[in-house]
Amino acid sequence: MDRHIQSIRKLYKLQRDQMVQSIQKYLPAGVKHTSPEGGMFLWVTLPPGVSAMELFQLAIEENVAFVPGETFYTEDPEINTMRLNFSNSNVGEIEEGIKRLGMAIEKLQAK
Asked: Is 38's pLDDT higher than 90?
């Protein structure tokens, strides 16, 4: 079990690092993100006024999905937040997914 946990931790670190690098490369200025020390998710904050729910529809058209952060708030939701999972994709898929997400953000901001 310990070897398996070590293996998973190494893989998740690689995937997390790829997602962070891809966010920095493909998402527009003003996007903020966490860099967690554990877990399987990053929390992303979009520029003010950008709705993650509106972005979700455009992202689906680009064949990429995320969980809008609004669903995690019990009161006063922040509409410009989202949760991204990195544990279920390889590094190539992560980079491509973030690239597509960046294209969807650009489309939303151009509206």
From this structure: no
What is residue 49's predicted lDDT score, i.e. its pLDDT?
86
Q: Considering only CA atoms, which of 98, 96, 91, 83 is closest in space to residue 18?
A: 91
- Of 109, 47, 110, 108, the residue nearest 81 (C-alpha): 47
Half-sphere exposure (Cβ direction) of 42: Cα atoms closer than 13 Å: 27
- Global pTM? 0.92
The Cα 38–Cα 56 span in angstroms is 25
Strand ranges for the chain from DSSP E = 32-33, 41-45, 67-68, 81-85
pLDDT digit string (tens) for 50-61? Answer: 999 999 999 999
Side-chain-side CA neighbours of 89 within 13 Å: the count stands at 19
**CB neighbours of 58 closer than 8 A, spacing ≥ 6?**
104, 107, 108
Contact 68, 54 (CB under 8 A): no
Strand partners, 42: 84
